[in-house]
Design a protein that fits this description.
The protein has 333 residues and is of the alpha/beta class. The protein is 37% helix and 15% strand. It has a six-stranded parallel sheet with strand order 7-6-5-8-11-13, sandwiched between helices. It has a four-stranded antiparallel sheet with strand order 1-2-3-4, covered by helices on one side. Strands 9-10-12 form a three-stranded antiparallel sheet, with helices on one face. Helix 2 packs parallel to helix 4, helix 3 packs antiparallel against helix 4 and helix 8 runs parallel beside helix 9. The longest helix is centred in the middle third of the chain and has 27 residues. The protein is globular, with a radius of gyration of 20 Å. The site of 5-S-methyl-1-O-phosphono-5-thio-D-ribulose (MRU) has 20 residues, from helix 2 and strand 10.
Length: 333
Amino acid sequence: MNHRESLGLKIESGRIYALDQTRLPHEEIWLECDSPEAMSEMIKRLAVRGAPLIGVAAAVALGKYVEQGANLQQFTEKALMLRQSRPTAVNLMNAVDRMLKMAGSGPDISTGKFLHGPEVVVAEALSIFDEDVELCAKLGQLGAQYISDGDSLISHCNAGGLATVGIGTSVGAIKQAHRDGKRIHVFVDETRPLLQGARLTAWELAKEKIPHTLITDSMAAYAMKTKKIASVWVGADRIARNGDVANKIGTYGLALAAKAHGVRFYVVAPYTTFDENCESGAQIPIELRAEAEVVGDRAPLGTSAWNPSFDVTEASLITAWVCDRKLPFMNRK
Ligand code: MRU
């Protein structure tokens, strides 16, 4: 596969490397992913994370597997395994399905032969990578229009360059506004329990020299009341047909607080985050992660915990969905 690079994923001399995001911000360690299993393991432990990045990472891992000589049957098995690595992010399913379709995978894979030849499957993986870069650039331009000079913003989790292979989605809009010369200030939600805001968004904003202040998640409502917040910016793991949005746990609470304070609430996501098979947020599977992520070393030994990794924000709480194309529910508003 030809050279590609991004903040969190790169292809160098035909090998795939992923930045281990669990080690950021203190260590920048690139790990080689030389099999679909290795990529799946990195996705499960959130070393590779963010819905669009996961989709691209799965696609290139499958492209590499084809280059290593997999036949259609082997390819299909690993694709289905990768597809299950993260239940909420539909970008993963969309990217894997695109790879399966290009490979010619279907009920009869017994011939073991690819529909158009292996090189076409590899090219599809790279086009999924390149498309994400373009989608992010477009989302950044579109989103930045809703940010004015002097605005204070709240950002939740990390929907930046680390969560995509481009500029990012909601953080991409913030970066674009800053690059356009707008003076903005970002309040960064730390994003319990794994601190993607504190560890990753703060890291990205610092790289771009965008003024920012870290807050704990529980400070967000009070910040809206006292800090003249203009708008809240989040990404999405899955958007249902009625506009409901699944995103990192805490997004729903932020949307409720934003509504109560008259603060605009923006969701930024490419079409690859849209699930046309999902009627409403009620059908979106929410990943439950290990209790230990919540308990840490703070609570008494043996304390039990509940750890839904995502929540669903109803469409009625969302001011606008910033997407590269018009989605069906957008006619409503
Ligand atoms: O568990 P994470 O860190 O992968 O969660 C990420 C998010 O919730 C993002 O907002 C979402 O995946 C969109 S990233 C552009």
